[in-house]
Specification:
This protein has helices at about 10-20, 30-35, 65-75, 90-100, and strands at about 5-10, 25, 40, 50, 80-85, 105-110, 135. It has about 140 residues and is of the alpha/beta class. The N and C termini lie far apart (about 35 Å).
């Protein structure tokens, strides 16, 4: 299994997207998550997040077209590609898969969009894109 380029905090991811014009963010969550939980808003950077489900909703089956969709979303295999999911698990798998597919700079956004679970098993208070105060939109 090929190693990906590494993990970035949400703030580090934003800084990379800001400083490297060719950098792409691919959100690998499901369509339901994008719609109901929210999605990164890259408009302050004059960019748009790309969306490719790692697993399909509602059955949770692997998306057989993931690599093809990710390549279409990020056509330059030398450009930085940042992968985001809910908590940083699916995005590690996506970063690894795209590294194996020949992409040179695949990053996982650690803590994901919603962050880790707190003591009450709730997300949204311990890290993640939203808690970092980065721009996002809902549904």
């Amino acid at each position: 299994m090929a190693d990906y380029a590494g993990d970035l905090t949400p703030t580090e991811a934003w800084e990379l997207l800001e400083t490297e014009p060719e950098a792409v963010l691919i959100d690998v969550r499901t369509q339901a998550e994008w719609q109901y939980v929210g999605a990164p808003d890259l408009s302050p950077l004059a960019k748009r997040a790309q969306f490719c489900e790692w697993v399909r909703f509602p059955d949770g089956a692997p998306n057989p077209a993931f690599a093809e969709q990710a390549m279409a979303a990020a056509p330059d295999p030398e450009a930085p590609v940042l992968f985001l999911c809910r908590s940083g698990v699916r995005s590690v798998a996506a970063a690894t898969a795209m590294t194996e597919a020949g992409y040179a700079r695949c990053y996982n956004i650690a803590q994901g969009f919603e962050g880790d679970k707190d003591a009450d098993q709730h997300r949204g208070t311990l890290g993640g894109w939203k808690v970092a105060g980065l721009p996002w939109i809902q549904g």
